[in-house]
Amino acid sequence: MARILYILYTWLFFVPIFLILTILTASVTIIGCLLGGERIFAYYPGMIWSRVTCYLALCPVKVKGREHINRKQSYVFAANHQGAFDIFLMYGFLGVPIKWVMKASLGKIPFVGAACRAAGFIFVDNSTRKAAAKSVLEAEKALKNGASIAIFPEGSRTYTGKMIKFKRGAFQMAFDQHLPIIPVTLNGPYDVLPIGSLNLKRHKMEMVVHPSVSTDDIDPSHKGLQHLAEKTHEIISSALWEEYK
């Protein structure tokens, strides 16, 4: 009975409110950034939108390890990718401005795509090797300007809740800019809204922010970057709930 009531709540209340909030957030972000307020409007409207989305979904959120973040330092935040609510969890509760590295297909979403472009987010195009290299350069440009970026090294959401192998792009960016990586473990978004599902499930979520991983002494070879990716994967995995390991 509780499940039926929650589904009714989702479609009669959550979805309409979420769509309205999304359009308002995107509009405020676009206008604010175009008027020169990117530092404020590229982060705060999206942060508020993300938090409100989690609250509207009735999903309790727990955050651990935020003390590991130095607000004066730029980072590459690397997280596992369980589901759509990963974005709301990180954007809403990480506590620092970030630029997202996201799939090019997301740029086609009405309002959202335009807002992401206005905010200076980076769209990854993997259609060709040249296009993928350009995406990395754009992300590194954002890092040079003092921004932190957030990326899902798996490249796509998991179908099982368990992590898959990491791609090298995030670690190449961090190494090239001599920036530390902060591994982030996300638990719960897979159960809230897994890939392929349209029905939300009320479920607790947790974000664990780990101590940063230095890139200063990394071997620049393919083997060195692979080792960095594996080390980050291992750290993130260490805080996963048992059902996701």
The major pleated sheet works out as: 7 strands, mixed
Number of strands: 7
Mean pLDDT: 91
Q: Outline the low-pLDDT stretches.
A: none
Q: Which percent range describes the beta-strand content?
A: 5-15%
Overall structural class, as computed from helix and strand content, comes to alpha/beta
Please count the helical segments.
9
Give the termini distance in whole angstroms.
31 Å
Shape: globular
Any idea what the radius of gyration is? Answer: 18 Å
Which percent range fits the helix content? 40-55%
Order of helices and strands: HHHEEHEHEHEHEHEH
Largest beta sheet: strand ordering? 1-7-6-2-5-3-4
Give short descriptive properties of this protein:
alpha/beta, single chain, 9 helices
Describe what this molecule looks like in 3D.
With 245 residues, this protein is of the alpha/beta class. It is built from nine helices and seven strands; from the N terminus they run H-H-H-E-E-H-E-H-E-H-E-H-E-H-E-H. The chain has helices at residues 2-34, 38-41, 44-56, 85-93, 112-118, 129-144, 169-176, 189-192, 222-238, and strands at 61-64, 76-79, 99-103, 122-124, 149-151, 181-187, 205-209. It has a seven-stranded mixed sheet with strand order 1-7-6-2-5-3-4, sandwiched between helices. Strand 3 (99-103), helix 5 and strand 4 (122-124) form a beta-alpha-beta unit. The protein starts with a helix and ends in a 7-residue tail after the last helix. The mean pLDDT is 91.
